[in-house]
Amino acid sequence: MSKKNEQCRQNLKTMMIMREFERVIKDLANEGFVDGAVHCYTGEEACALGVCLNLNDDDYVFSTHRGHGHAIAKGLDLKKIFAELMGKASGVSGGYGGSMHLFDTKLGFMGGNGIVGGGVTVATGTAYASKYLNDGKVTVCFFSEGASNEGWCHEAMNMASLWKLPIIFACENNLFAATTPSYKTLANPDIFERAKAYDMVGVKCDGNDLDECIKVSKKAIDRARRGEGPTLIEFKTYRVEGHCRVIRDLEIFRPKDVVAWWADHDPIKVYSERLVENGVLTKDEIAVIAKEVDAEIKEAIQFGKDAPRPSTEEFLKKISERYAI
Amino acid sequence: MKKLHMLDAINVAIHEEMERDDKVFVIAEDVGEYGGVWNATRGLYEKYGALRSMDTPISEAGFTGLCVGAAMAGLRPVTEIMYMDFITACMDQLVNQAAKADLMSGWQMELPITLRAQYGSGSREAAQHSQSLESWFCSVPGFKVIIPSNAYDAKGLLKSAIRDNTPCIFMENRNLYYDPVEIPDEEYLIPLGKASVKQEGNDLTIVTYGIGVPVCEKAIKKMPDASIELIDLRTIVPLDMETVLNSVKKTGRLLIVHEASAGFSVGSEIIRRVVEQGFDYLDAEPLVYGNLRTAMPFSANLEDSVLITPEGVEEKARYLLTGVC
Ligand SMILES: Cc1ncc(C[n+]2csc(CCOP(=O)(O)OP(=O)(O)O)c2C)c(N)n1
Ligand SMILES: [Mg+2]
């Protein structure tokens, strides 16, 4: 297999891992292995992967409450992600963070966020530091269309453009914020057009087409690395599942034909059909990938289940110092 | 009489107040067409339409600021912060605008705003979804702070808050949402600033509110030998010191229990006042028992080590009653 085809195979596999992750996590939650809030990234896989394929290990990524896919795309250890969601000491955040707070600073993964839009100004800060230190790093800040309506987003984008900071504002417009469809919250449904107001580059991208996601992000990331300033990319995509484990809002605002249209434009479907069409992979070879994915996920789940809980004693000792008054 | 849980009682209270006064309206994230992520505002949209049950973008600063202006113009907004942790996103609008506009204007205006905020800990939702932030609002002059412990009180208190002409912060503990209680069919109000004596006793006063009430009730059940007076404050500002002082005068011993950690807390303030106004009543040092002072960790064993428990209440109570640990 050529290097290029090998990469395509890997890309498909990574998206399939993201998808399978969300499928099994719901079962694990129902079985009591995973606590707390769980927001699934199903259907948005191409956005995170398309961006992160253009990043170096030490580039910064800021994630959201819906961050499992971002973490997998940035190369965080699958086993440790499962362990984190299970509240285990071997988790990426030592069991202190959970689903919404995956961190891995060694890989520039600066955390999910329980506050919608909470990461946007913070990401502007690492970009500022990169300019300051001239370290050549780029910051990517993921957020969705709901977050774009927090004032923070406007403040951050204005500063980033003003100071030509190396940051990509990666807006995954999945058409929903909790139970509310975006047509009820966006005066202009094209978020990328806001960039104009900040004299910043703004582009839209088919967020369900991996090749386009890779291409559009590459251009923006290259620009940022050359010191030419930020870009706002709006990925047009669709939140396939309900908002989270407890809020099941799939019965409302989901016309059948719209759901069917998006199912037909599913990122994994689109990409795998293209690979077959172009002779990169056969259907049988894709079935082999599915088996690999299944095995890797099972192994990672087992790792998470076997891992120990964080030590209560160490925690109590640490907080008595850290939060002393 | 009907058995209702707290969310239903809140829903009925809002319906009744909107029916009664056409200046009352609801505005916040997801509260309209879907009926609120907790379903507390269901049925309003169908009955009163979008202008009176408005879904907003995720713009807490925007819509709470809007509430201040709407109140200045004669409306009576009822707004909602989905998790109290996110109230940070609109602190200027609340602290510098809502709380102060009446005084700054030389009392030319009133600000009849009710802000409902869901909160609580113990549900494995980690650091940004587990905080009890009442003392912030107690410390800023201008707010009333109301925290019901059961569905009956929630209904009567919320109706009073909506009719009150000052900004009211109405905190709802999610762990109390689903306990059914008998609610009369006739309308009733509960005045703000009146505590409720849940149980009379002679040897120890326990003052609490919110989730502290069922926690203390469990503890008291385990001490049938002790004569304990249990006070549910219901309203933190204004604080019903008369009820507290009368009780301490009788018992000579005081324990304050709340979910917020003890340092710089509501409990600290109660002790200040008891020491200033009832020093001679005290036969033992008054104590505050709260969650440990820490940002909330995710993992179950860590979170459990932080939370107040009936066992913890019992231990403190026994110490105060016997003088031994
Ligand atoms: C400041 C703040 N407000 C509200 C919430 C509650 N909340 C959690 S996720 C969510 C919807 C977010 O929508 P969007 O930004 O579009 O992200 P998506 O869920 O689509 O990925 C809301 C309202 C929050 N976490 N933080
Ligand atoms: Mg969204």
Radius of gyration of chain A: 19 Å
Average pLDDT for all residues of chain A: 97
Number of strands of chain B: 14
The small-molecule ligands in this entry are: thiamine diphosphate, magnesium ion
Topology pattern of chain B, helix = H, strand = E: EHEHEHEHHEHEHEEEEHEEHEHEHH
**Secondary-structure element string of chain A:** HHEHHHEHEEEEHEHHHH
Overall structural domain count of chain A = 1
Unreliable residue stretches of chain A:
none
Q: CATH topology of the largest domain in chain B, which one?
A: Rossmann fold
- Which residues of chain B form runs of ≥5 with pLDDT under 50? none
Largest sheet of chain A: 5 strands, parallel
Radius of gyration of chain B: 20 Å
Instruction: State the distance separating the first and last CA atoms of chain B.
Output: 45 Å
Termini gap of chain A = 62 Å
The multimeric state of the shown protein is heterodimer
Q: For the record, what CATH class of chain A applies? A: Alpha Beta
Task: Examine the secondary-structure arrangement and name the CATH architecture of chain A.
Answer: 3-Layer(aba) Sandwich
**CATH superfamily annotation of chain A:** Thiamin diphosphate (ThDP)-binding fold, Pyr/PP domains
**Greatest interface:** A-B, 44 and 38 residues
Question: In summary, what is this structure?
Answer:
The complex is a heterodimer of chains A (325) and B (325). Chain A has 325 residues and is an alpha/beta fold.
Any overview of this molecule?
The complex is a heterodimer of chains A (325) and B (325). Chain A has 325 residues and is an alpha/beta fold. Helices cover 46% and strands 10% of the residues of chain A. In chain A, helix 1 packs across helix 10 and helix 5 runs parallel beside helix 6. The longest helix of chain A has 28 residues. Chain A is globular and about 50 Å long. Chain B is an alpha/beta fold. In chain B, 36% of the residues lie in helices and 18% in strands. A 7-stranded mixed beta sheet of chain B has the order 3-2-4-5-7-6-12, sandwiched between helices. A 5-stranded mixed beta sheet of chain B has the order 9-11-10-13-14, sandwiched between helices. In chain B, strands 1-8 form a two-stranded antiparallel ribbon. In chain B, helix 8 crosses helix 12 and helix 9 packs across helix 10. At the A-B interface, helix 11 of A face helix 3 and helix 11 of B. The complex binds thiamine diphosphate and magnesium ion (MG). Thiamine diphosphate sits at the interface of chains A and B. The site of magnesium ion has 6 residues of chain A, from strand 4.
